[in-house]
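Could you please consider the sequence and fold following this short note?
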Amino acid sequence: MRQGIEQLATMTHGLVMTPRLQQAIKLLQYNHIEMLAHVEEALLENPTLEATAAEAQFDESEQKVRDAASAGDEASPEGGGPAESGLDWERVLEQMNDRSRGPEMSGGTIHDDLPPIEANLTYGQTLPQHLEFQLHMLRASAAETAAADVVLNNLDDRGWLSITAEEVAAAAEVTLEEAIDGIELIQTLDPLGCGARSLGECLRIQAEVYFPEDPIFPVLLIDEHLHDLERRNYAGIAKALAIDLEDVVEYHRMIREHLDPMPGRAFTGDDARYVIPDITCVKMGNDWLITLNEDGMPDLRVSRYYQKILKGASKADKEYLLDKLRGAEFLIKSIHKRRKTIRRVMESILKHQREFFEFGADHLRPLVLQDVADDVGVHMSTVSRATTNKYVNTSHGIFELKYFFSAAVRQQTGGDMAAEAIRNRIKTLISAENQRKPLSDQQIADTLSKKDGIAVARRTVAKYREALGILPSSHRKQMF
C-alpha cells in the first residue's frame, strides 16, 4: 500500500547577512586607525571612489576621460554625451584594469629594482630562537639535544617548562635521565632560569650562579622558606635559619633586585600600545562639546566621470562599473551612519555619566549597554560594537568607551554605586597607605563603610583588588 507524500511550504523570517551588511557592521567596530586603513584600501581597490581632500594626479587616458566629462557637463542636457566624444571607452577600461595588476604592466617605476620591503624588515627573536642559537654552540649528545629541543618548544611566556620530565622523555624518545640532562642544559643558557618547573627552581638556578659562595640563598629559595618569604614572615625565617632579622630583610632585597621570576618575559613581544582617541569630550561654558577624530580621514565621493562612462561601456564593463559605483556609494553612506551612531552613543554616555565628566572616576554611575541602547533607539549589539576598542579623551584622561559601563552595587542607603567607582576608591586607599603597615582587605572594607558609606564585603574587596592587579597586604608590606 503506497502512502502519500505531503509537501508543506512554510514561511520564516530571517536576516540575510550580505557582504555589504557585514561591511557596515565591521565599519562600526573599527577604531580611528583601523578606519583610516580601510578607507585607504577602498580607494586603491575601487576606481569609482574619490578622495576630495587632496589634488590627484592622472595619466593621459584618465585625463581624457575627465576632460570629456567636463565637456559633457558644460553641454546642454540634450547635447551629445561622453558616448559621442569618440573615445575608446573599452580601451580606457582595459588600460585601467592593466594598471591595477601591478607596476610591471604599466611600464614600471624607479623603485622596481629595489628589493621587496620584507627584505628590509627585521624582527625580534623569540625565546626559543634565542635559546636554540646558544644550544647549537654547546657540545651535547644527540639524546640531550633532542630533549632540549622538546623543552624549547614547551616553554611558556615566563620561560618555565610547561610539561614534566617524563613527558619530555616521551616526546624526544629518550630515557628519563637523558631528558633531565636536556632540561638542565637549557637551564644553563641565557637568560638564567629558563626551563625551570617552579618558582623555587627558577630562582635557585639564578642564585647559585649570581651568589655561589652564599649558602643561605639556596636554603631561602627552596622548601617552605620561599612561602614564608612571600608572606614576609621574616621572623620565622630568621628563627629557622638562626640568623638576624636584618639579614633576612637584606636577602629579600637582593632577591628582588637581582633575580627574575619570569626570565622569558623579555621575549614575549608585548610592545607598548599607543592609543589615539576616537572622540574628544570637553566642556565649553555650561555645555559639553563632543568631537569625533577625523584627522587624516579624506572626504569621499562617488566619481561622476565613471558614471558618464556607463553610457558607452560594454555590458561586461557596465556590470563591473555598476558594482563598483554601488560599492562606493554604500561605503560613503556607511561611514556617515557610523559617525552618527558613535556620536549618539557618546551623547548618551555623557548624559548618563555627566558626574564622571564633571568630577572624576569616584562619581561613575552604574550603566549597562541596554540603557544606552534604549536611549539611542538601537539594538544592544550595536552599542557594543560602537564602543569596542574606541577611546574618548576627557579632562580626567583617556578612557575606553566600555569603561563607562559598570554593574551596580547595592548600598546600605538603598542607592546603587558603580563597581568601577568602588574599585577606584580601593586603588586610591591602597596608593595612600603606609607601606610598612598596609591595609588588609577587611580594613579597606571598614574604611569604605565608615568614611564613604560604601557597603562592600571583605570578599568583594579582595575580588576588586585582584582585578586591579594589586597584591594582598602580606605581599605589599615593605621592610626597607
About this structure: The CA atoms of residues 186 and 347 lie 57 Å apart. The radius of gyration is 33 Å. The chain is about 50% helix and 5% strand. Residues 127-267 form one domain.
